[in-house]
Amino acid sequence: MSKAFWNIFKAAPAVVGASLLAANGAMASEAVAQSNSDVLDQINTYGQGGASVDQINSVFQLSDVSPGDWEFEALRSLVERYGCIVGYPDGTFRRNQALKRSEFAAGLNACLQQIERLIAAQTADFLRKEDLEALQRLMAEFEAELAALGTRVDGLEARVTFLEEHQFSTTTKLNGEVLFVLAEAFGDFADGSGDNADDTQATIGYRVRLNFDTSFTGTDRLRTRLEAREVDGTDAGDTGTDMTRLNLRGSTGDNNIELNLLAYRFPVGDNLTFHVAPVGYDIDDVFDPNNPLASSGGGALARFFDRNPLTLRSAAADVGFGANFDVNDDIRIDVGYWTDEGRDPDEGAGLFDGNYSAGVQGSVDLGSEDRATISLNYVRKYFGEGDTNISSSTGSELSTEPFGDAATTSDNFGLQFSFDASDRLIFGGFFGYGFVNNRQDDPFGSLTGGVPISDDDSAEVITGSANISYLDLFKEGSILSLAAGVPPKVINNDAGELEENDGTSILVEAAYRFPVNDNIELTPGAYVVINPEHNSDNDPIVVGVVRTRFRF
Q1: Where, residue-wise, is CATH 2.40.160.10 in the chain?
Q2: Which helix (H) or strand (E) segment is 262 a member of?
Q3: Are 132 and 17 in contact (CB under 8 A)?
Q4: Taking the domain 168-551, which CATH number applies?
Q5: Which residues pair with 507 in a beta bridge?
Q6: DSSP bridge partners of 509
Q7: HEC states along 139-180?
Q8: What 3-state DSSP class applies to 20?
Q9: How far is CA 244 from CA 233, 237, 259, 436, in A?
Q10: Whole-angstrom Cα distance, residue 132 to residue 138?
């Protein structure tokens, strides 16, 4: 019950009197009626019993109330005239216990509420002056109890409100994903040898992920992920180029189960969220990829199309820290730091002395319905000797290691966009540019296979793609997707004989995701690499895929 109800008790005789007389049309003007309406708008309906509670039409049904008191007689008259008290099916408030004054006050209050409702509904034209006088006397007699009742109800409402806002039971929820992947590559090896990729046989691989999501406050999340995976047959060892690599490629070794991800995110205020992860965090766990095909389990088949490989992937990522800040409803700023050596205490490793990636991203939603989103990002990466992977295993060998095994830094810039042209048609894409610097002198070429390099050499890498998705084709929940792009390639290199990629590879993919039901979906598709390794002397390589996804 609201405080407003109790605050009008002292003025209640006048208020109720005005209401009753206005309802009878004998003593009230239209202005008084309007005043009553204003007062009634402040009153919250008092909550009554549940489904097992029956209406009582006579006080005599309340066997635990003595009929000898004048209060009883007055209340009986109100009950019988207006049907305003609710009791238990056996006709008592408290079984056979005596009715206390505070309990009587609660009954009186119920009658007051009922009469107020009748007035508000303009159905109280039969209200009598005698009833008004009885109400006035009863309210004066039980003023203390009514006031105490109001205090207790206010206190109870405050406690309930607090519990509703703060009550949370720490729980852990399990969700899982199982993937079956049938794949085979067709075509010549992309190494100039002329060997046929048809020698690589069709394979069926799998990935199993179990996510245990725990929340301690209702707004945070601790995710613990277990994974087992064995997906092979489509990377450089099988086709001569990483451009053919499946999005799911990888292995936990001999059907082993590993801790794949351990990450905690939590909000601070309404606009800021922090991330910390000792295992398994990549850049896209903090930065939104802003790509309709960004999902290893349900998105692109080829690794390249999943997200911008220069700014949203990194081989120098595992341990991660980050934050998301919502400037307003349309603008978000993300920052993050990642390293793959954060658990290694050796010199040249650790959180801040080994390989790392660090960056910032800004995203803007455009249009009245936020149908378009554009994001810009910058990520700086450092790779120690023997660890360099600029293209994140999606481009040519030269774009992955522009200076061989030498230590390098790269300053990478990315642009991502998505546009919902309609409820069923979505466009997306990305562009990436990387400026790579060599950090080691190697006059004898021991790190590059015989090509001398100096620590002031630099190279430039570019990449880009575009995609289109059509939703609900033939069946609700289905997605037909087409994508085309240029995997990472070196367009300039100061390191003499290493030079740059002279040709240009084109990667094209088509896939159709078909939901069998709410938990199972099939995605048949294929992708082809034209001029693999950015070399026009290499024949196209085709990869056929059928992916089955189970979610629970």
Answers
A1: 168-551
A2: strand 258-268
A3: yes
A4: 2.40.160.10
A5: 485, 529
A6: 483, 527
A7: HHHCHHHHHHHHHHHHHHHHHHHHHHHHCCCCEEEEEEEEEE
A8: helix
A9: 10, 10, 27, 24
A10: 10
- Number of Cβ atoms within 10 Å of the Cβ of 221: 17
Are 307 and 289 within 8 A, CB to CB? yes
Burial code (b: 16+ CB inside 10 Å, e: under 16) for 65-100 equals: beeeeebbebbbbbbeebebbbbeeeebbeeeeebe
Structure tokens at 375: 């994001």
Say how far apart CA 138 and CA 71 lie, in whole Å: 7
Amino acid at 418: S
Q: Which two tokens stand for residue 505?
A: 């590879």
Residues 6+ apart with CB under 8 A from 356: 316, 337, 338, 339, 381, 382
**Residue type for position 444:** F
3-state SS, 295-322, equals CCCCCCCEHHHHCCCCCCCCCCCCEEEE
381 in Cβ contact with 356 (< 8 Å): yes
* Amino acid letter, residue 438: N
| 279 DSSP assignment | E
* Per-residue pLDDT of the chain in tens (552 residues, 90 and over written 9): 444 433 433 444 443 444 433 444 433 334 334 444 443 443 343 333 333 334 444 444 444 446 566 766 777 777 777 777 655 444 443 444 556 676 777 777 777 777 777 766 655 455 666 777 777 777 777 777 777 766 655 665 666 566 556 556 678 899 999 999 999 999 888 876 666 655 678 899 999 999 999 999 889 999 999 999 999 888 888 899 999 999 988 888 888 999 999 999 999 999 999 999 999 999 999 999 999 999 989 999 999 999 999 999 998 889 999 999 999 999 999 999 999 988 989 888 889 989 999 999 999 999 877 789 999 999 999 999 999 999 999 999 999 999 999 999 999 999 999 999 999 999 999 999 999 999 999 888 888 888 888 888 999 999 999 999 999 999 999 999 999 999 999 999 887 666 777 789 999 999 999 999 999 999 999 999 999 999 988 999 999 999 999 999
Global pTM value: 0.70
